Amino acid sequence: VDYLGALDDYNKAIQLQPNHSNAYNNRGAAKHDLGDNQGAIADYKKAMSLAQQQGNTSTYDLAQNNLAGSS
């Protein structure tokens, strides 16, 4: 799996759409898989914050579960 490529893609997606909660969650997963737990935690928290503001419960729940697995 190309986690570095995925990370680059999610960085670009976030640059284009900075309020895209799912992109933050997915970037967090890529960071987690690359061993960057602090970066993953920050992205999961950002995803949860955006998802909550947007009423996106599915992304909120997913990011919350990912966060619990990273702590």
Describe this structure in words.
- The chain has helices at 3-16, 21-33, 37-54, 57-70.
- Helix content is 83%, strand content 0%.
- It is built from 4 helices and no strands.
- By secondary structure, the protein is mainly alpha-helical.
Identify the quaternary structure here.
single chain
Give the termini separation: 23 Å
One letter per element, helices H and strands E, the order comes to HHHH
Mean pLDDT: 97
Approximate helicity band: over 70%
Poorly predicted runs of 5 or more residues: none
Per DSSP E runs of 2 or more residues, the count of β-strands stands at 0
DSSP helix count? 4
Shape descriptor reads globular
What does the main sheet amount to?
none
Find the structural class using helix and strand composition: mainly alpha
Radius of gyration: 11 Å
Beta-strand content: under 5%
List the helices and strands and how they pair.
Layout: H1 3-16, H2 21-33, H3 37-54, H4 57-70
Q: TL;DR?
A:
With 71 residues, the protein is an all-alpha fold. Helices cover 83% and strands 0% of the residues. The chain contains four helices and no strands.
Features:
71 residues, mainly alpha
